[in-house]
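Recap slide: tRNA-specific 2-thiouridylase MnmA, sequence and predicted structure.
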Amino acid sequence: MSKGRVLCAMSGGVDSSVTAALLKQQGYEVVGAMMRFWPDHKRQDTFDTCCSPDAAYEARRVADQVGVPFYLLDYREEFQQHIVDPFLEDYASGRTPNPCVNCNTKVKFDALVKKAKMLGCDFVATGHYVRRVEGPGGVEFHRGGDPRKDQTYFLWGTPREALAHILFPVGDMEKPRVRELAEEFGLLTAKKPESQNICFVPSTIGEFLSEHLPESRGVIADIRTGEVLGEHLGTQHYTIGQKKGLGLWKSNLTRFVVHLDPETQTVWVGDEADCQWSGLSAVRANYLLDLADLPETLEAQVRYRAQPVRARVVRADAGSFDLEFEEPQFAVAPGQSVVLYAGSRLLGGGIIERRERQLPPLKYPKRRPQAVAR
């Protein structure tokens, strides 16, 4: 007897391939599906390693190997609306976005779960390294079994009502074991390399932004003194904490980007102490438990590769929260996600909001160099 009908998101990679094979082996009725994001006129070097036409072909072949039906679902419009357009808007507004968070939140675990229900499926399954745990209050998401591959950071925005309908068959495993299983199942993706880049960016983020956002000449200034130290072609080319590539006129200075002001096109820089955050405010909050059960002291992670740090919840409501770090944190970037944990359990998260700064008046040098930095 079938354990239920599952819509398995297949990307053409090894993780989702093994996910489909495991589900079939475990007795689920599996339907393979890939979400099409690439446009009709795909630019060269975009959507090449994941979410590509070639990946769709490989996913279909894996579905044939596993013995499950496969469908290519058109999500081009949603991808442009929820991922690409906000990506550009964020950089233009002085924020540093994380498109993978938006993709999981708005598309994979929102639109895809709704599509699964339309197709009569009980569950959606993916190859994420996340553990699904039956807790006393219902399904919980916990950090994956492979700490190097844990992907809970990207899933904080999952609608709470969707948790019970999502499966992660490889969530307890380490990556080498997943590849071993792929070999045992005879899957053609067993040795396929992983994709690391942003799928819709053809080369570098800087080049992509230059193609889509206008140049806006501005200045780089010291946040303590107001002294103008350089020029640039747009605040969108900078992020909080950036140290390299500032192009300061005084090349002996070591400075970090501390604050971005797109309205005046000013990049404010300072020393390392100026780039420390004692706390943060977050908006677009999402909680995977009752707000009343949110612990006052928890762990917060402000970047995917950052270590979680202890923090205190100063204030929280349905749409936002404020945190105070136990120790100041370097370069907390607005637009990035702050993700909340209690041990290994994912509690939710939000988008880091820009903090207000006291800014001195600009002081231009008597004679300006002509070089423009970017």
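The chain is about 20% helix and 30% strand.
The longest strand covers residues 276-287.
(End of recap.)
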